[in-house]
Write a structure and sequence with these properties.
By secondary structure, this protein is α+β, with helices and mostly antiparallel strands. The protein has a single domain, classed as Transcriptional Co-activator pc4, Chain A (Roll), CATH 2.30.31. It is 20% helix and 36% strand. The chain contains two helices and eight strands, in the order ββββαββββα. The chain has a four-stranded antiparallel β-sheet. A four-stranded antiparallel β-sheet has the order 5-6-7-8, covered by helices on one side. α1 runs antiparallel to α2. The longest helix has 15 residues.
Length: 148
Amino acid sequence: MPEPPEAELISLSDEEQGVTVRVLRAENFSGGGQDDTLHAEITVSSGFVNGRANLYLNSYDLDSWTAVLDTVESGRAASWLESGRSPRITISPAAISDSGCTEVSVHDVTASQIHAIVPIAAPSDWIERHRALLAAVRSRFPLTPDPL
């Protein structure tokens, strides 16, 4: 059976709301012989607000996601995709958030300027699950390393 064309990189949700980043496909922006970019979308869903934004990820962004997971695991908030070329995601661990839940903040800095904070009753193993999702995305969509 062929693999589905999409893969989740982020999937944080509970019974009421969630935030996902789904990789839609790999693309070749540089014109070289290998894919160097992932076309993805962020989806925010809740009973109050629903939204979707496109984004493009490179190997540096995937490496940065690893660093975000490490920072959040250490008990500190961390932001991902801060370059200004795509929506920004910030994650605050439950221990330091105002809501007592893991909070995922999505700020669409490139288009609508809308900022949503989504409190999620995340399972205790969510960071390990996201390390596995990242490994699966890297395996499914190999990218040329970022030259920087």
